[in-house]
Specification:
Layout lengths: L1 E3 L5 E9 L10 H8 L1 H7 L4 E8 L8 H10 L7 E6 L3 H9 L15 E5 L3
Parallel strand pairs: 3-4
Antiparallel strand pairs: 1-2, 2-3, 4-5
Helix pairs in contact: 1-2
Amino acid sequence: MLAFSERGEIDGFATGWTTLAPFRTDRAYGRVTRRLGAARVDELLVGAMEIDELGVRGHARGTGLGRRLLSALAGTAPGGRAWLLTWDQAADTLAFYRRMAWTEPEPLPGHETDVVVFLAPR
């Protein structure tokens, strides 16, 4: 999804795709499986839309554009199921998703990682 300014410039974007089985193990995906366990990954994430990137140019921040892009992309998710991950040290990002009513499935005891998984509100 792209959001354009009145001048025709890109002010924001969001990308995503449907998470296929088998669940990936590269990049941060292995930490997602460690955090949630394979059964919960299959239940919660496989077949859902993964929101991969969300970006808003500096001058457009604080206008609700990020919220609108995220909601629009998640609104195209199969069965309304969407998810994303972010780093546990990204305080502003964590606060944004929490304000948007995205929820965090509890990690398996003793399996906390430096990634946080969020599920779209239903």
